[in-house]
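It is worth pausing here to work through a concrete case rather than discussing structure prediction in the abstract. The textbook approach is simple: state the sequence, then state the predicted structure, then interpret. We follow exactly that order.
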Amino acid sequence: MNPWIEMTHRTSAILVGPAALAAAILALRLKGAVPLVKALPWVTVAGALVAGYFGRQTVLGLPVPAWGGALDLGSALAAMAAMVVATEALERTPTRPSPSRVSSLAWVSVTVMVAMHLVSLFAAGPRSYTRCLSWPVWELLAADQLASGPAQVIRIGLAIGAACAVLASSWYARHQAALRGPAVGTGVLLVIVLIFGLALRVTHSDQLGVPFSVATVALLWTQVLLAARASLRIGDER
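Step two, the predicted structure:
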């Protein structure tokens, strides 16, 4: 499966840059759009450029240190989040963000999840699955402990905090019609991610790696959507 995965990855990555640039240019031409709509697509463009640089380093076989991997991953996640928020702001055209308990909890969960993923790059030992975009697999991996000491413990602590924040934001959002979809989605995806982690621990099967990472990205994307939608609701919807 590796050639299919790698070529799909490269093709989608090549398409992201021009699409983000086109969206950013079109956003500047919109009349009456809030500043978020005009500014955030450029964050996506910048994130795509940074991630593209480190991707080139990897393709050429050049070494990428842990901090470079964290910058690469952080830029990619920031690009994704920026475009989700810009899309929500464009569709809802709020006068200003409206913080609420749901939005606060959702943004906390997003922040902690991103921190967890970035710490993973410093916690991972050689050829460890911790290096991939994933949640902890219900155990302290021997390779990770030898490689980075307490980083893996910190990662697990962040995972517990993120899971609690995800569940709390979903719980408070469940009765609001506009938020119910992403709220239910994050709850379901969190359960799926935890099941994948347990299955990887038990089976040690590489075949579960790809769907595990896909579910991890889907959970973060859906939580960003919930946070953005909760923050940008206006009027009597709030």
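Step three, interpretation. DSSP finds eight helices and no strands in the chain. Residues 2-28 form the longest helix (27 residues).
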